[in-house]
C-alpha cells in the first residue's frame, strides 16, 4: 500500500520524506487555509519536495469552471493531480480532464455507487472518507472493501485512496480492506511507528548494558 500525506504543511512533509515514507500528498481547501499562504506557492513547494502525485482541489462548482481551474493548476508542476468533488459537475469535469490525459482525484466519496461513478468517469484516484463515515456510525472500512471488490470485478483502473484517516487502526484496516493508498495526516504518522513496548525495550536494553564490562575502544 502506498502512503500519501494529507497536509499542506511543507515542513511536516519534508520531515517524513526524509524517512522514505511519502509516495504522494493530498491537500484540500481546509488544509491549505490552515497554512495562511498562497495556494499556488504551497502546491509548487510541495511538488518540489515530493516526486509522487500531489492533489490540489478546485473550488469551482460548475464543470466548465472546474476544467478551466484545472488547466491552470496543471501548469504549476508536472506531478499535480486535480481534485474534484463528487457531484454531477465534478464527474463531467473528471471525464473532460481524463480525455485530456489529466490525472484526477475524485473526493468526498461516501458510498460505493459514488465511487463506481467516479471510476467510470475516468478518475485516476477515488477518495472514500473513512473517518467522516465513522463519525455518523457508518462502517467506513466496509466501503473500502466494497469499492476494491467493485474495481476488481469490473476491471476499472481507478486507485482507492482511503481518506479521512484518524488513527493507526484506520491505516491497518484500510491496508487489509484493499485500499491502494492511505492518505494520512502528518501529525498521525509518528503514531504508526511508535509503540510503548519498543520504548520500554530500549530502556531495558540500555539499563542491562550498564552491567556489561566495557570493551576497550568500543562504546
Ligand atoms: C482527503 O483527501 C481529505 O483531504 C481528507 O482526508 C479529509 O479528512 P478529514 O475528514 O480529517 O478532514
Automatic annotation (TrEMBL):
Protein name stated in the entry: Probable transaldolase
Alphabetical UniProt keywords: Cytoplasm, Pentose shunt, Schiff base, Transferase
Major subcellular site: cytoplasm
Pfam entry (one): TAL_FSA
Protein's organism: Paenibacillus lacisoli
Gene3D superfamilies associated with the record: Aldolase class I
Family: Belongs to the transaldolase family. Type 3B subfamily.
Reaction equations catalysed: D-sedoheptulose 7-phosphate + D-glyceraldehyde 3-phosphate = D-erythrose 4-phosphate + beta-D-fructose 6-phosphate
Annotated catalytic residues: 83
Amino acid at each position: 500500500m502506498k502512503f500519501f500525506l494529507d497536509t499542506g504543511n511543507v515542513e511536516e512533509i519534508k520531515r517524513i520524506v526524509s524517512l522514505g515514507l511519502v509516495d504522494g500528498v493530498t491537500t484540500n481547501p481546509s488544509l491549505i487555509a490552515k497554512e495562511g499562504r498562497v495556494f499556488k506557492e504551497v502546491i509548487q513547494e510541495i511538488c518540489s519536495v515530493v516526486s509522487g502525485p500531489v492533489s490540489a482541489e478546485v473550488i469551482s462548482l460548475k464543470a466548465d469552471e472546474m476544467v478551466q481551474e484545472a488547466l491552470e493548476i496543471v501548469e504549476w508542476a508536472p506531478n499535480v493531480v486535480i481534485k474534484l468533488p463528487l457531484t454531477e459537475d465534478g464527474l463531467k469535469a473528471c471525464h473532460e480532464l481524463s480525455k485530456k490525459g489529466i490525472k484526477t482525484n475524485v473526493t468526498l466519496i461516501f458510498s460505493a455507487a459514488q465511487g463506481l461513478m467516479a471510476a467510470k468517469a475516468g478518475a485516476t484516484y477515488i477518495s472514500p472518507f473513512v473517518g467522516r463515515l465513522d463519525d455518523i456510525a457508518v462502517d467506513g472500512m466496509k466501503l473500502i472493501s466494497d469499492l476494491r471488490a467493485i474495481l476488481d470485478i469490473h476491471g476499472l483502473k481507478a486507485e482507492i485512496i482511503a481518506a479521512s484517516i484518524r488513527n493507526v487502526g484506520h491505516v491497518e484496516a484500510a491496508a487489509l480492506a484493499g485500499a491502494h493508498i492511505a492518505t494520512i495526516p502528518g501529525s498521525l504518522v509518528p503514531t504508526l511507528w511508535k509503540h510503548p513496548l519498543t520504548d520500554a525495550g530500549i530502556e531495558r536494553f540500555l539499563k542491562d548494558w550498564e552491567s556489561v564490562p566495557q570493551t576497550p575502544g568500543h562504546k
